[in-house]
Write a structure and sequence with these properties.
Order of helices and strands: HHHHHHHHHHHHHH
Radius of gyration: 43 Å
Number of strands: 0
Helix content: over 70%
Distance between the termini: 138 Å
Shape: elongated
Number of helices: 14
Largest sheet: none
């Protein structure tokens, strides 16, 4: 990643120009809207200032004269002088010489890599972009055990930045996240605990993703999903095939060899691999959205079917209830008619008896 590209200027030692470029670019990358880009811009600004200051210091330093070839007599005189020089003075002169030499020999040709920290994140992203490596725990073991990178994890801020980057990216399996968790715990020392008492592994997003048990297998395929990606992978494999080797990414030695070869190829194809990665994410999201839509449609159909069945059942129950009520009403009506008829018969019989008794008298 090029610091001058982020500052949008040509390489320069003019501090005022660097500051103006930083102020101009800071308006584009607001820290709330683009936190990652703004942080990179800050690092680029600081590195550019350091570059300019050291270049000016190196230019202002007096040129070192090449020592003349010494004769035997001159060597003897020098030896005599050294013997007469106190030990303390010799040590101070030697220290001054070492510091001056260190300043003059400081090399800024690799300044655009931002050092080991930026080199780590660059290679970290390259591993994430490769579907064959993103969830290969052996690959992460080899990568994170690099001595230069292991020293970076001694810093709390670096580990926090690593966790945020892990949470920002997608495609990690639960097994990989648990390995990251175990790896980071090794560097958590009680005397370096943050003021708020929360380690980077206590990040709520990381904890939620780490303890997620559901994993959709069709979204975690270990392979590129386009012709360009497959061709890139085949190019790496072909380099081993020419050596008569077959790469098995389940063997640690083969994983290490593949990882080294991949990083060499990927350095020149970083933008292409990044594009493959995000396209794979969007295709996965589309596939997931389609699956969700199909699932929701199926649930709606099931719900409608159950609702129709329930409605039909209720209608049947209502008809049955009406039929029962009709039958009961008919029974009540018949009983009423029968009772009324019996009462009428009793009344007529009573009147007949009374009539007979009246005629007998």
């Amino acid at each position: 990643m090029n610091i001058w590209k982020y500052l949008d200027i040509e390489p320069t030692t003019d501090i005022a120009q660097i500051q103006s470029a930083y102020a101009r670019q800071a308006k584009k990358y607001h820290p709330e809207e683009y936190p990652a880009e703004f942080k990179i811009l800050q690092n680029a600004y600081k590195t550019a200032l350091q570059y300019a200051k050291h270049k000016k210091t190196a230019a202002a330093a007096p040129p070192q004269r090449r020592p003349r070839p010494e004769t035997v007599e001159a060597k003897q005189e020098t030896a005599v002088v050294v013997k007469k020089t106190p030990a303390r003075v010799q040590e101070a002169e030697q220290t001054h010489t070492d510091v001056s030499a260190a300043r003059v020999s400081y090399d800024f040709s690799e300044i655009d890599t931002y050092g080991d920290r930026e080199q780590f994140f660059r290679q970290f992203h390259l591993l994430v972009y490769n579907p064959y490596l993103i969830n290969n725990v052996t690959a992460w073991q080899i990568f994170l055990d690099v001595p230069a990178f292991a020293e970076l994890f001694q810093n709390n801020d670096f580990r926090a930045a690593f966790i945020k980057e892990v949470c920002r990216l997608y495609g990690f399996s639960r097994e990989t996240l648990l390995y990251f968790d175990r790896f980071l715990i090794r560097f958590q020392k009680a005397k370096q605990q943050p003021e708020n008492g929360a380690w980077e592994t206590d990040d709520p997003v990381f904890r939620r993703r780490k303890h997620r048990h559901i994993r959709l297998s069709f979204l975690s395929g270990s392979g590129f999903r386009n012709k360009e990606g497959n061709a890139f992978h085949e190019t790496i494999i072909a380099s081993f095939s020419r050596q008569g080797r077959t790469i098995d990414l389940n063997r640690r030695k083969d994983v290490g060899d593949y990882l080294r070869s991949y990083l060499l190829f990927a350095a020149a194809n970083e933008e292409k691999l990044e594009r493959f990665y995000w396209k794979r994410k969007y295709s996965d999201l589309k596939l997931l959205a389609s699956c969700c839509a199909v699932t929701i449609a199926a649930l709606v159909l099931i719900f409608l079917d159950e609702w129709q069945k329930d409605r039909a059942y209720k209608e049947q129950q209502e008809l049955f209830r009406e039929e029962i009520l009709t039958q009961q009403e008919a029974a009540y009506r018949n009983q009423y008619v029968k009772q009324k008829a019996e009462e009428d018969m009793d009344r007529l019989l009573q009147q007949y008896r009374e009539w007979e008794q009246g005629n007998g008298e």
